[in-house]
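User: Please fill in residues for this 281-position structure.
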């Protein structure tokens, strides 16, 4: 008895993965001076079969450094002036990413360099109110937050004198007027033109392909592997694909995130396609 044959089609699931790094030693090109932008030139284009459908792209892991400065000359918030016994002392704060303790240490070191006692004043974080308290370790001390380019906005002080009259007792304190604002960068976004689709952020459509929350202390590397990575349409990779594309690391407002360090991501591209097979029966 002669058997029969029948052609059937099964759905086949496919995927490919790529690791992209901003380090020039790993092949990144056209890297920006601040390190927030780099491009990739592949020898072979990422091209999906014409028969592919349900094509998606997702970022399954990403890495960046929490080192974007929150006090810089460019931001116009790097000046601190303290008066002791009526004599003013000006401090220019070096560009950097500070918290309350590191900023207090910097200011105290500069006070020593200018001939004053380290304990002239101390910045103290009040976690209950999220404000900074200035503790004065001498009599006749006063901070002028009304000067140009003052660090007051980071510390949460209005444009005023602190205290309103020079300190009268050792240990006198003065709390900030508002919540401190050391976190000028709340999260990172990774953006790219590798596909035409993107993840909208409110009403902004700016090539966002991943959201990177800041989960590491200042000066440390952030690593994130989302449990449920957001998938975006990758069907544009079917028509010839792409071998040159660019990645950008930005803050929540879309400003370049100048970490000064390399960042990277792992991308998975998935699709489905029908696969024919002959069944004998």
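Assistant: Residues filled in for all 281 positions:
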């Amino acid at each position: 008895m002669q058997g029969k044959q029948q052609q059937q089609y099964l759905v086949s699931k496919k995927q490919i993965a790529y690791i992209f790094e901003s380090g020039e030693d790993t092949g990144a090109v056209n890297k920006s001076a601040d390190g927030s932008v780099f491009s990739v030139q592949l020898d072979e284009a990422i091209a999906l079969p014409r028969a592919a459908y349900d094509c998606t792209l997702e970022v399954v892991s990403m890495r960046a450094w929490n080192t974007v400065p929150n006090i810089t000359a460019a931001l116009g918030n790097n000046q601190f002036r303290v008066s002791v016994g009526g004599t003013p002392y000006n401090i220019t704060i070096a560009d950097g990413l500070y918290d309350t303790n590191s900023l207090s240490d910097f200011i105290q070191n500069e006070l020593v360099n200018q001939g004053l006692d380290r304990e002239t004043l101390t910045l103290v974080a009040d976690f209950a109110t999220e404000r900074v308290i200035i503790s004065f370790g001498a009599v006749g001390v006063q901070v002028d937050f009304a000067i140009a380019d003052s660090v007051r906005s980071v510390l949460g002080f209005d444009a005023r004198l602190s205290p309103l009259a020079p300190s009268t007792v050792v240990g006198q304190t003065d709390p900030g007027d508002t919540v401190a604002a050391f976190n000028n960068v709340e999260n990172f976004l990774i953006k790219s033109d590798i596909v035409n689709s993107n993840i909208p952020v409110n009403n902004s459509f700016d090539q966002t392909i991943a959201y990177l929350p800041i989960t590491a202390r200042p000066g440390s590397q952030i690593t994130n592997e989302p449990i449920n990575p957001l998938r975006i349409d990758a069907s544009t990779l079917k028509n010839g694909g792409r071998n040159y594309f660019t990645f950008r690391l930005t803050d929540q407002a879309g400003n370049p995130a100048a970490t000064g360090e390399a960042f990277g991501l792992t991308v998975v591209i998935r699709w489905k396609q029908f696969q024919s097979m002959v069944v004998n029966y």
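For context: The first helix runs from residue 100 to 113.
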